[in-house]
Amino acid sequence: MGCTEPIAIAYAAAKARAVLGTLPDRLLVEVSGNIIKNVKSVVVPHTGGLRGIPAAAAVGAVAGDPDAELEVISNVTAEEILATAEYLRSVPIEVCCADSAHIFDIQLTAFHGEDSAFVRIVDYHTNVVCVLRNQEVLLEKDCVTQADGLTDRCCLTVEKIVDFAESVELEDIRETLERQISYNMAIAEEGLRGDYGANIGKTVLLHRENDINYVMRAYAAAASDARMNGCELPVVINSGSGNQGITASVPVIVYARHTGKSHEELLRALCVSNLVTTHLKTGIGRLSAYCGAVSAGVGAGAGLAFIKGGRYEMIAHTVVNAVAVTSGIICDGAKASCAAKIAAAVDAGLLGLAMYENGNQFFGGDGIVKKGVENTIATVGKLARFGMEQTDKEIIQLMMEN
Fold it and tell me: Model-level pTM?
């Protein structure tokens, strides 16, 4: 619940308070540049509309449940929201950029008098690698992880993803995907009902209520409108990101319902959309200057191709066509404009699919497009992870200037 980077900070703060055994009277939050980027402008749920690292650390320290991990602040009360605001006013919270080789690094120290507690999270949102109390080591793990911190994904190719989606026993995937359908559509509907951020979803849908291509884009954008602007509904994430979980799933769900596809067809299509998104993100990395919504929009296009009856050839061409369109979109942190980028990313996925349906495609040698879908995906990963490394640093520097 809540944008995942501020929630990870809240989780670290809640864990540090538990180790300290009392409410801290001072906090030091040292984070990598990408954490600063992704927390600076986003509203933290259950804080009364507060934004940024101090708010995330404060609510975690005051009211967080460390056992709930990424739902650490899901049960904050109205009284605790007031207490968080008072804590921010009265307790020093120092934030600084960590000198770290890790793109994802949160180091939080909580103090009370002469006592202290230290919690470090590296590489992904719940990967606690070090816990100290007054320099006593309570937990210490090697920070060296696999490519993205969780699983070996070398088995992923578009062809194998399609084969898996066609053959998997639905009971093996049902629980996760049913939750994704329920949660992500609930926040999309809330985004269209409420007044969140720049209201991108409502804007996309205006006078286009009967055009399914606009409806798909609008629902995905509206879910991000709500999530980026403090909505307290949970989301099932993809590759560490709620926005990516939304983008990969919501357009496919909307289309399946609109066209009367069976629930089995929807679940299998969601396999494709989620795994194609994950496949693209594996080479890119969890955080970078490359907007993650682009990968998820490509995943959505792949899922839509599957639910329309397409298989490997259609899906491979959809992926190549779509990444050629929007791979230049930068990530400048989590905030209201993410919803607009999601609308554009879903549109690129739809365009990539429409191109194939009408006998058109981009060819190897067209810019970064290579011959073959896997070669193109690998190239996008190199562009995002290595080619945009300096871009990422410049984005962070620009964001810290205001």
Answer: 0.90
